[in-house]
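Entry 14. Two folds queued back to back today. First construct below, sequence then structure tokens.
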Amino acid sequence: MENKLKIYKEKLIIENIIMAIGTAALLAVQFLRLRPSYEGKYGDFYQGFIAGMAAGLCLLLVICLVRNLMAILKEERLKALYIKENDERRAAVCTNGRSLGASIFLLTSIPGMVVAGYFSATVFFTMVVCVLVLSVCCGLGKLYYTKKM
């Protein structure tokens, strides 16, 4: 068990590095005050929507970063997080509820939406619809398999 926890701890450290880079990039975009390209009738709403989405994603990354840091520093939290993430029932529901490809698509599309929002409103809204449809499908799959198992 100790060896598995050590490997898991190293995995969390790598996750933290990636999340720190993502948080820094989002904060840099926010503080540089890059303006989205859309300047139409709802330009101010659009700019606020993009800024709020970036801030929400940044907050989510910081929360996950703090959770992982607390687990790295305290052995009992590390063990609890390891058990939670390696639960067989949870893994089966996630595997049956959505595929690895869907997970990767969701995780890369959300930051991609924020970036695309600064360049093209059409691409941004298309990505929002795609992510929402995939999220609803994954959520329904998880609900179905949670009840089924």
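Second construct, same run, same settings:
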Amino acid sequence: MTLDKNSIDMLLMLDDAHLALIIKKLASDAGIPTDTLQLGKNEIAGIRSALSMATDGDISRAAELLENYRKGKRS
């Protein structure tokens, strides 16, 4: 999945359960452990809020951070 404003807008159209599944899948694919990841109503609401306000620059930075995490870098 390519992170861009259109893909973020599509994610925001999902119901909470499906959004949580996608988030966990993206995290797992990036090598982030998800066994203790808790995504309740409050967490999903916060994620929705952050995603809805994300700029193209924010999205680019998030993609860069994910790529660095995959490569073993932490910043």
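Quick look at the second one. The two ends are 22 Å apart (CA to CA). The CA atoms of residues 27 and 69 lie 10 Å apart.
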